[in-house]
Amino acid sequence: MKDRAFIGVIALLLVLGCEHEAESELPIPADKMVKFSHAHTKLAEILTQVSNGLGGVDYQWLQKNPDELKDYLKLTASVPLSQYDMWTKPERMAFLLNVYNAATMKLVSDHYPVSSIKDIGGIRSVWDLKVVSLFGQKITLSHLEHEMIRKELQSPSAQLCIGMRFKWVSGLTQGALHCKKY
After folding, report:
1. Quick one: pLDDT band at residue 120, thresholds 50, 70, 90?
2. Contact 101, 172 (CB under 8 A)
3. Which of 19, 23, 137, 139 is deepest in the core (most CB within 10 A)?
């Protein structure tokens, strides 16, 4: 009986208390205004390098050359909420969708080769790992999608973009999303 209780406690600790290695990075401070281009030029340059234009992503190249994607994610993470709140709805939507896509690209390239992003989470769902640094805190892809993109923006365009998430995770088009596309 004690063995079964011990195993139950260990299993509960594994599910609730263990941090996945993908969550190990600390949140990036977002305490001052930053220079940010709504053209998402850095991400567009990355996508030019890794996308074949048909939805395929060269994750092996990303894995060998992670700095540009890390720099883009550090830049987006350093945007303070007060600055984000001053943007138009299309600018906020493009920002969040690009952060979502860049974070998934980083996650897949960090664990490459994997056949699916869903293989990354282990015991916990990949969508529930705190892997996105935004506004000075770490959040999950699920929170970014459901609480920020779907709930906050409530846009048919955002719904369509998120609805295609699984295509985006495995492959992205060339070019970052920007507010002129909405």
Report:
1. confident
2. yes
3. 139
pLDDT in tens, 129-177: 899 999 999 999 999 988 898 887 776 666 666 655 434 444 444 456 5
Output the pTM of the full model.
0.80
3 within some domain? no
Return the structure tokens found at 172.
Answer: 């992205």
What does the alpha-carbon distance between residue 51 and residue 172 come to, in Å, rounded to a whole number?
A: 6
| DSSP three-state, residue 118 | helix
Asked if residue 112 is part of any domain, the answer here is yes
Do 173 and 55 meet the contact criterion of CB atoms below 8 Å apart? yes
Q: Which domain holds residue 134?
A: 21-181
The amino acid at 135: F
> How many Å apart are CA 101 and CA 178, to the nearest integer?
13
- Domain assignment present for residue 141? The answer is yes
Domains contained in the chain, number? 1
